[in-house]
Input
Amino acid sequence: MVFIKKFFLIFLLLGCTSGSLACDFSNVVFDASFSAARLSECTQRGDNSFLLTIKPENHPINDSPWYAFKVSAKDERKIRIAIEFVNGKHRYLPKISRDGLRWAAIPHRLKNKRLTFSLKVDQKPIWVAGQEIITNQHYQSWLKQLSQNSNYTMSVLGNSTENRPIYQLESLSPSNEWVVITGRMHPPEITGALALFPFTQTLLLDQSVGEKFRKRFNVLIVPNLNPDGVEHGNWRHNAKGVDLNRDWNKFKQQETKLVHQKLQNIVANGGKIVFAMDFHSTSKDIFYTMPTDYGIQPPMLVEDWLNQLEAEMPDFKVIIKPGNNPSKGVFKQYIADTYGVQAITYEMGDNTDRKKIISIAKNAAQLFMKKLLDTPKEKFYQPKNKK
Ligand SMILES: [Zn+2]
Output
């Protein structure tokens, strides 16, 4: 826990890089000139009443309006904020923070697509956002910290559309088996990120089963695949206005291309991708899987693993949703179709308790490692006979 807090502190000190909107009214200022901010327009409607408008990067777009701004006032006062979303309906509940580190939900009303709430403001800015803010800098600091362990190498996989570095971390073993973990294709999906951190840390830092796991399996982690979207506070897309998790059959986007080339290189050098996992958020905790009869290997690995997770966590209902849609361009389907092995989309609910997200992730990671270690190498190699 101290580990996590330290990173948040680093992120806090280094944040605030992008320049964009600031609305300076006579007594109240709204500021969106920091990383991951999104605020499109502000209107003053009364002394202490403001209407804020949030627009997506482009549309049509998934209904995931992200918003993040700071607000301060020349003197202490109570203000009323209404937020309207253009081209999308409300998804994220408003949260506030005084330090960008600790966040609290605030009472709000939602009526006719308008979100309203009241805030006490003063000279010290208050962050307001749809979820906790996790910037590109945070990922960089997190990976840097992990790579202080000499067993792990942090490097730049390549650059995004707008030339931001996309970082990867690799844990190498003498074997040719690879586990791949990706995240943050969709910038506002913070609970997915909050699961990726403890899941990955368990894989990399666990001293018992983790040591055996890392001896046998190589691990590739690309935790932040859409740094442009994260920087701009996008609702969903990359800098070209494209949903990256619909591009894994076309590879028209720089970000998906980079991962595809990396995996192709691994295979060209004798490596075998054995499993992949992609972290997201949605309305509830759910694991999107490939069907057990899809012909990928080993057929029951995911079912067995997740059923065991439910058995070990009686207060957590595991929902497994198998699906197969080759034309959609989703990452898990790409892994299944290209490498013949299992892959999942690991989704945490937008409003799932944050401590629970961590405990699910740690348990899931422990059981995942055991499950993979119990799987003989040849079980990943059965020929694919069905599509
Ligand atoms: Zn998503």
